Amino acid sequence: MSEEFEPIIVAFCCNWCSYAGADGAGVARLQMPTNFRIIRTMCSARVDPEFILRALSKGADGVIVLGCHPADCHYIGGNYRARRRIALLRLVLEQYGFDPKRLRLEWVSASEGEKFQTTLTTFVDTIKALGPTPLVKEGQ
Amino acid sequence: MTKSALVIGGGIAGIQASLDLADRDIHVFLVERLPTIGGTMCRLDKTFPTNDCSACILSPKMADCIGHPNIDTLTFHEVVKVEGSAGDFKVTLKKKARYVDPKSCTACGDCLAKCPSKGIPDEFEYGLSTRRAIYIPHAQAVPRVAIIDAANCRMIQNGKCGVCLKVCGKKAISYEDKDSEVVVEVGSIIAAPGFQPWNASVATEYGYGRFKNVVTALEFERMMCASGPERGHIKVPANGEDPKKIAFIQCCGSRSEKQGWKKYCSSVCCMYATKQAMITKEHADVQEDIFFMDIRSYGKEFEAYINRAQKEYGINMYRAARVSNVDEDPVTKKLAVSYTDSEGNGTSQEYDIVVLSIGLNPPDGAEEMSEILGIELNQYGFCKTTVYKPLDTTRTGVFVTGAFAAPKDIPTSVAEASGSAAKAGAYIVDENFQPCAPKQYPQEKDVEGKEPRIGVWVCHCGINIGSVVDVPAVTEYAKGLPNVVLSEQSQYACAQDCLEAISNAIREHDLNRVVVASCTPRTHEPLFREACKNGGLNKYLFNMANIRDQCSWIHMHAAEAATKKAKDLLRMSIAKAELLEPLVGSEIPVTKEAAVVGGGITGMNAALDIAAQGFQVHLIEKEKELGGFARNFHHKEDGKEVSEFIKETIAKVEKCPKIKIYKGAGIKDIPGFVGNFRVQLTDGKEIQVGAVLFAVGAAQYKPVEYDYGKAGNVVTLLDLEKQVAEDKFTGKNVAFVQCIGSRNDSVKYCSRVCCAGALRNAIQLKMKDPTTNVAIIHKDIRTYGFREELYNKASSLGVKFLRYDSDAKLPVFDGKSVRAYDVILGTDVELPIDTLVLSAGMTPLRAEKEELAKMVKVPISKDGYFFEAHQKLRPVDFATEGVYVAGAAHWPKFMDECIAQASGAAARMLTIISKDKLVSEGIVAVSNTELCDGCGVCEGCCDYNAINIIVGDDGRLKSDVNPGLCKGCGCCVASCPAGAMEQRGFRNKQIIAEIDALLNDYQKV
User: Fold this and answer.
1) What is the Cα B212 distance to its own chain's centre?
2) How far is B528 from B534, CA to CA, in rounded Å?
3) Would the CB atoms of B572 and A37 count as touching at under 8 Å?
4) Could you give all domains of chain B from N- to C-terminal order, each with its CATH number?
5) Omega prior to B589 cis, within 30 of 0
6) Into which CATH architecture does domain A9-130 fall?
7) Rounded to two decimals, what is the model's pTM?
8) Per-residue pLDDT tens for B351-379?
9) Is the minimum CB–CB distance between B246 and chain A shorter than 8 Å?
């Protein structure tokens, strides 16, 4: 393949902070790569590790979960739970020989359009550097 | 006929007052003279002391307000005449010409881009950027519609142009628009016009307007703000470079006798300057110096904030005399700030930017408004109020809230705004009161067991989506997706015509799912859900794909990839929609009575406000008599003894047929939830109520300093007041020591009330006998707002002011004299003393609060006071719905503040107990009892205590979700190891459907 590798990334955003931050990036017309698709949940704690595994097994090259900053969770402490779950899942992924860099957790507040932009841009770069997911063979 | 209420001013105070009235089913006219609501708050970047993003916390309130069926938000209107009297006002409003029909305008922005009349200073940005003659006031504007500035419009002025009309796809523009009059009939009026920032050019010595790098705090706020003209990159105005040193000059326009300055303290500047310094520091490593006279961090967690700014952020605080002047280097444009250092020497430092912490003036047009409303102003030009009736103006039926009564911060304004709603409501709710009827919708169609029939609308949003994403291709693509029976494109999906088309198509095409691909559900989902309801479809059968904010706007130069992304997003949205189910929030019955715990000033006033609207109140007091802590007061406020006021209030409460008093009553437990609490008393009584208020107050700190209690000549403020009142005080040489039990290592906060208390007593001693020597030894004098008067008066009467820094350096008292540092002489002085008065702070009665807190699962702050749901915008609410806090139980405060906050809590409680039933949000968690094995993981992870493990009918343990308490975060769902827990609207299979829809057919480029 001569063309540059264009990964596909699933981004889970919580309704109150990071989804709003993504909208904020739009309002400010901050430009970024097109490689991600956002799935909205009410809280980052709603993101079941199963969703992440599902996305990875179906060929997503990376998954990013975005929540409210620590102590800012709309639901008191959901983001802390998300943090624990993602940390554990990264360990599990690593033990199965899967590069945990393909799963990231970040905090983006409703006002941080710019942080949304840089976070996603950097993550796309990271995934590009890692190359296509090993879970789906070429041509499949 | 039931009257409406009128709220004047669409800032945060006006919005909150309107929402509380509307949620109590009273119709409201909210009048704002500007084209949008939001006031000053929507121009702020962050808010202290939480550093919350201002727009983020305000936007939902603005959306609630504009979308509320009981509120008519009349922007760009002004009150011109008020006739009649309380209960029956006739108010004439001027509807100002907007030249754009707000109903047709979709805020696409096409006109803004083409208007040839450019370079007009943008008022919203305080002139830091420019706009055109037709403009949308700002990015978060509510209502988000364009307006023409007639004075700068070429068409309106010269009849030559008309470009905006030509490019407007909706033909929303009318150059012939004229001002018109509207008459409304209202029962009561709330004035919330806010404040006007002090005009900094009066301070010629600071060079504002002459030196480019001298900016006001509000301009600096816009410079800091991510949505501001510089997108949050703070630059030196003169050369666009990154600043290295910034100075903040406090009390600019405040606390001075100078011509054009104000004598009062503006109450908020110490905190906002500190906030600005902290946020700036988070952006970049800048040296920041704050020049101040006294740091006034008297509010909840303010003291900790100031300490953090210094210790963690390294912000320098210069306790100095006022900055005398600012000079500019004509070449480098750097600014020299001249001031007197702590040793009394004149000195100077150079800065890149100087921020003037400007004070708060009465709102523009306050005098005219006072004439129209028939209300009096005080000597400073603010609305006149009294300590005992802080929300009443001088005219019956007209109330005041927010900064119009005195400079104040946002939480105080919000609590008072709710309070004014309670007061105003009482003039509308009488025996003939008809609550606003809920809107009627057509019967919802039954979709149970039916194949999905999905209708899709893809929006061009003018050119916002259409110029990047190939909308016709996306629309065509959707037609080929399973279960899609209709796919249409729309110029503006949110416009009235498309909304009606959606409602009609639901009937005509028998749609049972609707998907719109347009902007963000955060702002527009309610609108489309409403269209579904109008078409007879359950609102939860709607789904949205965000192809504007999260696609066309961020991929403007990648049309092809953006179109592919839009198709993916739409496919995902449709896949989820197929699996959506109709949801009904569960109905929770409400006991229409209230419990008020605490029979002090706060509790009694809250009880009276609730009873005034016809609801039964249970007032529970642990002591044998009512009156609370204020029974210790022996002074007058506004010429009336506090004891007299308490006596009158107790008489009112005892006479009120709607208030049942329980004296000497302890509380054992408060099981239940919003609308359904059972207050169990220690004597075995049980009271059923819909809402509970904690007004349990605080107490005076009992000093251990200076051998208090043993040494006869050491007394507290309250002791002194009592002795003076009983004419037993004979002291001739009196010194007050401030901050006893406050602002030290064990009690870190400021008790707020002691400075004014000491000054009041010092003045009294001096007035009684001018030969009495009185000294006040303090850390800072914190007479915020109009209380500054006390400081000025005491100074003019010859009260001496001495300082000490910390408890390690407590003034030394040997029984006969006290040693302390004289700021003016710059040396320690020794004063002969016969009475040492300890200004003892407030102590929170933490143990008592913790007991109550456990019963309803509400938090206690680290200082031992109750911790509200949100420090800024929900000051009297708890995160636990149906439970409220007011008065000193929330934080130390003055009597007028307690009374206003009591009314605020009453209004919030009325929004609950005036309802027959509450409807919970539909997206709650639900447990599948077949799969649940009662492990309890979900129970442990629910922060709202909405889940209980109970024994089922079959004797097995299972999880039980209380939909009344569930907030729908879905945390428990992800935690359930059995897959038994589900979240309606966000079921596992629905989210997985989105993932699969994206990846099953994903074609990598």
Assistant:
1) 33
2) 10
3) yes
4) 1-94+180-195+363-440 (3.50.50.60), 97-178 (3.30.70.20), 197-361 (3.50.50.60), 454-578 (3.40.50), 589-698+844-918 (3.50.50.60), 700-841 (3.50.50.60), 925-984 (3.30.70.20)
5) no
6) 3-Layer(aba) Sandwich (3.40)
7) 0.84
8) 999 999 999 999 999 999 999 999 999 99
9) no
